[in-house]
Amino acid sequence: MSRKKLKDEASIKVLDSIKGQGIETIWDRYEKQEPHCGFGLLGICCRMCNMGPCRIDPFGTGPQKGACGATADTIAARDMARSTAAGSASHSDHARDLAHTFIAIGKGTAQGYSIRDPNKLRVIAREYGISVENKKDKEITLELGEKALKEFGKQDDEQLTLSKRAPKKQQEIWKSLNIYPRGIDREVVETLARTHEGMDQDYKNLVQTTMRTALADGWGGSMVATELSDILFGSPQPIRARANLGVLKEDEVNIIIHGHEPTLSDVIVTASQDKELLELAKSKGAKGITVAGICCTANEMLMRRGIPVAGTFLQQELAIMTGAVEAIVVDIQCIMPGIVQAASHFHTKVITTSSKASLPGVGCIEFHEDKALDTAKRIIRLAVENYPNRKQDIVNIPKESMELIAGFTAENIFYNLGGKFRASYRPLNENIANGRIRGVAGVVGCDNPRMGSGSYHIELVKELIKNDVLVVQTGCAALTCAKEGLLTPEAAIEMSGDGLKEVCKTVGIPPALHVGSCVDNSRILIACTEMVKEGGIGNSLDELPVAGAAIEWMSEKAMAIGWYFVASGAFVLFGTPMRVAGSQAVFDYITKEIENIVGGKWAFEEDPIKAAHIMIDHIDKKRKALKLAPMLYKQPYKVAV
Ligand code: BF8
């Protein structure tokens, strides 16, 4: 069933090629899980203590309380809070590792790194209160790394990126609601403590801690990860590349980099050009070395170095099944255990590099900054030496790959919209105000076999741009839409509404802008803040004609992202409710009532066309409240929802 919604030709071809060989994929395993447990889906199964698991009867005839007396409201809200804390912890721990890398660079113990954006180093250092006058990069890098690291452990003080950047109105709301986050670690720990058996039982209070923890991530952990990555690996600039399995090469050594932290992958990309290793590859019969990415490591390397993208989360096993991958090198997050089983049918070596993400039976070449280049070379050598083991007769690389433009940021986007003579958000705000652009939508997050296996993102984005909504994208949603050609300027001409087409054509940008990996959703927060600062389309984030969606969301990180946007005043749509539908009270609270409290709220809709129009309706509601001009051009059609 779930495979029927998969529309990606390259993926379908690989799946067809392995038919009848007893090789399992995520779709097979997903289908074996069906029908899924209704209690679990509704969020009314409690596993917090050893009196349970306790289940609440959703039809009202069976038990309505767990053994301790917990209701569906407590159980659902508690589960949501814990998941959001896990998601926030994942993004933020990624940021912490980068801070450690900065310290290592500053101390001169890191190997193979240089600061690629010294200007941004100084800008961010100043923001952190570090004096930069007459100081060398190394010195500032050390101080910034140490300061950034301190953000995690703050007990009562505010995080700097948040207090200095978030719009005033949002900060006042957070203070009045007692959801102004303190240090990242404190918020995550407190959420875990508050969700222990016998602790917080009031669902509204639990939603409060959920929002505070997510805000600590969005305006803190994730934002720190983005800024430090820009400084270290270079601030992205629009760059052309290609995406989909067709980027793998039949006659070269193919190495997949997969995960989220680019600290090792960046050095792998550099080392793949090493003369000695290229010679070694030739001696083994390969014409060269191709490094291609999967998931957010792909996004990080794509937007900074133009590295091709092999695929999304759902394509990690499929890349191996082309038979043409010598090594898949994984760091952290979104690494399916299934890749080990997939690799066992082929010659591919799976290499883990972090002690935080170990796979049973798989060798780890642990990454440490002081030996980064040596480690990268060792990994590449292993891959190259594995090339003769490739069975050329079973190699099946689909030809599909698509051109894309990646690398837009909150900083460079105004150059692209206004040109160097008008480098501000004014052109964007003006075109929203005058009705050429209806508003802006973030379409982000995972691809999920429960949903459209990526196809829902594509349908959603096509419907949005057709109705003059400018789209910004991160994560696997961005990679999925890239494969469909939506991240090209041509998509504006072929698929956008007349107003959006006019703007994109004038400045030569795609109607869907790639703004990075999942931690880079923080860029969208900053871009929205800049839109507020520029004026004319809302005085705070909740007034802007914007909306967000992670229609195929899968990971807990997506929940953290969704929550920090809602708490910041945005409208956020997920395809399925976050395991809270078993509590009517929690469901109503987060989809309705909460809008009067923080300005943002949730919506849940699986049908991508309906989802697009729910978002468009929200954008139109905001336009109306702001008394903006009617849309300039008649729209193609409007779906009644
Ligand atoms: O962090 S979009 S599947 S890769 S969780 Fe994972 Fe989801 Fe992809 Fe990036 Ni984000």
> Any guess at the CATH architecture of the largest domain?
3-Layer(aba) Sandwich
Ligand identities: FE(4)-NI(1)-S(5) CLUSTER with Oxygen
- Low-confidence segments, given as residue ranges, are none
Order of strands across the main sheet: 12-11-10-13-14-15
Q: What structural category characterises the helix and strand content?
A: alpha/beta
Count up the domains. Answer: 3
Shape: globular
**Cα-to-Cα separation, first versus last residue:** 26 Å
Question: What's the β-strand tally?
Answer: 15
| Tally of helical runs | 27
Query: For the report, how would you describe the main beta sheet?
Result: 6 strands, parallel
CATH class of the largest domain: Alpha Beta
Annotated CATH topology of the largest domain: Rossmann fold
Name the beta content range.
5-15%
